[in-house]
Amino acid sequence: MNPSDVTTLLSMREDETAQIVEIQGGQPLKTKLNAMGLYKGRNIVKRSPADSTGPAIVEVMGTSLALGQGMAAKIIVKTQPLKLMLAGNPNVGKSVVFARLTGLEVISSNYPGTTVEYTSGHTVLAGERFTIVDVPGAYSYQATNKAEEVASGLLAEDGKALILNVVDATNLERNLFYTLELASLGVPIIILLNKWDIANTHGVNIDVSVLQKHLGVRVIPFVATTGEGIAELRTAMEDFKRGQLSLPNPPPENVDERWKLIGRITTECQKITHRHATFLENIQDATSRPATGLPIAILVMFTVFLVIRTIGEGLINYLLDPLFTGVWMPFLKTVLGGLDEGLLKTMLLGATPEPMQSFGLLTTGLYLPFVTVLPYIVSFYLVLSLLEDVGYLPRLAVLLDSYMHHIGLHGYGTIPLMLGLGCKVPAILATRVLETPRERVIATALTLTLAPCMPQTAMIFSLLSPYPLKYTFIVFLSIAFVGILSSYILSRMLKGETPELFIEIPPYQIPSTSILGRKLYLRLKDFIVDAVPMIILGVLIVGMLETAGLLNGLAQFFKPVVTGMLGLPPEAVSVLTLGFLRKDVSIALLVPFNLAPGAIVVASVLLTLYMPCMASFMVSIRELGIKKSALVFFINFAAAVIFSTLLNLLFRLLDW
Ligand SMILES: Nc1nc2c(ncn2[C@@H]2O[C@H](COP(=O)(O)OP(=O)(O)OP(=O)(O)O)[C@@H](O)[C@H]2O)c(=O)[nH]1
Ligand SMILES: [Mg+2]
User: Fold this and answer.
1) What is the dihedral of CA 532, 534, 538, 540, to 10 degrees?
2) Residue 278 placed within a domain
3) d(CA 409, CA 602)
4) Is 282 inside a domain boundary?
5) What percent of the chain has pLDDT over 70?
């Protein structure tokens, strides 16, 4: 708690809300106030100004009470910061504004639906502390998907003091519809006319004063990415604090009337000067038209794959592996080499000196996350963030729309799938922008199975790197095949229609390097904070199980399935069990078995598909509920076991 939030009822400002934390002055006063409903924990609203010379007026449980100044000075309260809602259409820049005002890190991207859960933070504006909420983007107060439901729910809550309506200046007419809906919520609004820079270069001129007059609210031209307009926002907040911000003009009730009004407003305040199509706009056309767009998409995806691998491998071979083997390992040897042989030494350094096989905490435990996986995480998120910020993903969604309909999804499903190449957890959350529960189930199933996540991909790359490239391709093709097949089955099992694609396609933009850098940092931080400890724990568990000889018993029990059907050594059971905790660790565990490449392929396919990892397991259950998640998990499991068995048979025939 910030100590400056604690004050007395006497010094509270007019209309301020607070909670009583203590009543001083002895028991008799406490009892007296208690009888009137003033006790510790109770919320109150002050109705008289702080500098008033008369009694203090407070509102409690809907009734007003007057208290003498002496009494009011004995009631200690904690004031609650005013709540400021950051609302607007999707992809208008709310999250960038939020990050700028709060200094908190949130992800922003150039496609609608980046924020599907809300984030809140604190900011000080005009000397006043505010709680500020990054409301998910919505086109209308009448929600049509889960993200919009969250938005309307947040806006309907009591206690909001002000709405900061972020409006895309390049798209004024469409954005104003939501603005008019917000205008009927009964709180003051400040409009941030964001992307003012793009509007200018596109020849869109908006007369701010005319717009202000029509809407009855303050309008501030704003560039969230650079912070232009912050000074005007501060001034507006000063005015808000002094109570000089009037409520917006009441909008017409009828929807048609609203659109008519919007039409009148835009013709009056907006002038668009004609200009030639820019280079970016020409590319925009080429990438969205199927004839040129599909070949470009294939080229883009192929390049993406290559770039990710090249950067990842480069980082490993030329930087991290030499550092680890040349600097870290000798250092460990010097410092811990003298340790007595025994449990502690085995735990820390493992059984063998090989960093990938020893399963010591300080050897494999660090090598795995930092040398094998991190480089690919860096390169993947670098490339993904670029695609996101340029605005390529919605175009991919449009291009793939007709194919996606075969498996019961529309094109927007490609966005969670792309995110899922990195980590399944944010990807499953991203399915919230899909309209129907059926679509969300299918999209979740496909996200979980279409391809492994990045840490696991990194391990598959590294495990198969000594062998010809065809093995790596077979792994990914098999996984994609099973993923698509099981989603197809699921889409037939779940009754219902797939809605038509209906998304906004933002124009391409040159990404801001600072936003790109911040996003990469945020995603890496997530990996290091959430995933690395799990990897180390996984390494520890396996090391311990092995030392204790427990793996053997388990291995014997499952031997018929694992060896008979899948052709893997019985000890691989431990690997499969651990796959639930961390899939990348479990794949790394295959190293000591010296498997043939065919067996690595079978094991990789099985491990990717048979079960989601613990984190995505929990998120699926939270998002879809237990019943639907169980269906998804079951279909994936069955498909994984059947397909891996077939693959094993095939490899035996081919003698791979
Ligand atoms: N040029 C320019 N780009 C901006 C500006 N504000 C935001 N952007 C970009 O617009 C895109 C969308 O920004 P976000 O903050 O993710 O949008 P959002 O409103 O939070 O979107 P949702 O979470 O999908 O509702 C990002 O690529 C931003 O970098 C701006 O003022 N100028
Ligand atoms: Mg956002």
Assistant:
1) 70
2) no
3) 29
4) no
5) 98
Q: Please indicate, yes or no, whether residues 172 and 262 belong to a single structural domain of this protein.
A: yes
CB 287 within 8 A of CB 293: yes
Spatial distance between the Cα atoms of 204 and 197, rounded to a whole number of angstroms: 10
Q: Calculate the alpha carbon distances from 609 to 76, 270, 452, 482 in Å.
A: 58, 54, 8, 8
List all residues 6 or more positions away from 177 whose beta carbon is below 8 Å from its beta carbon. Answer: 139, 140, 258, 259, 262
- The pLDDT, as a whole number, for residue 2 is 45
CB contact set of 537 (below 8 Å; sequence gap of 6+):
581, 582
User: Based on the domain organization, do 548 and 489 belong to the same domain?
Assistant: yes
Contact 535, 614 (CB under 8 A): no
**What is the per-residue pLDDT for 1?**
40
Q: How far is the CA of 55 from the centre of ligand 2 (A)?
A: 46
**Which residues 6+ apart lie within 8 Å of 605 measured at CB?**
475, 478, 479, 482, 640, 643, 644, 647
- Which residue has its alpha carbon closest to ligand 1 atom 21? 91
Same domain, 513 and 592: yes
Confidence of residue 4 (pLDDT cuts 50, 70, 90): low
Q: What dihedral do alpha carbons 234, 235, 238, 239 form, nearest 10°?
A: -140
User: DSSP letters of 210-254?
Assistant: HHHHHHTSEEEE-BTTTTBTHHHHHHHHHHHHTT--PPPPPPPSS
364 within domain boundaries? yes
Task: Tell me, yes or no, whether 96 lies in a domain.
Answer: yes
Q: Which residues pair with 133 in a beta bridge?
A: 85, 120
Per-residue pLDDT of 284-324, as tens digits, reads 888 888 888 899 999 998 899 889 989 998 999 999 999 99
Co-location of 355 and 471 in the same domain: yes
CATH of the domain at 212: 3.40.50.300
Domain that holds residue 567: 291-654
What residue type is assigned to position 376 of the chain? Y
Q: What is the CATH number of the domain that holds 19?
A: 2.30.30.90
The two three-digit tokens of residue 103, written as one number: 């200094």
Same domain, 236 and 184: yes
Please give the number of the atom of ligand 1 that sits closest to the Cα of 90. Answer: 25
Determine contact, residues 249/183, Cβ cutoff 8 Å: yes
Dihedral sign for Cα 232, 237, 239, 240, please: positive
Q: What's at 451, amino acid-wise? A: A
Q: What's the number of domains the chain is made of?
A: 3
Q: Which residues line ligand 1 (CB under 6 A)?
A: 90-96, 108-110, 112-115, 136-137, 194-195, 197-198, 223-225, 389, 509, 512, 515
Indicate which ligand has the atom closest to the C-alpha of 394.
1
| Greatest extent of the chain over all pairs of C-alpha atoms, in Å | 95
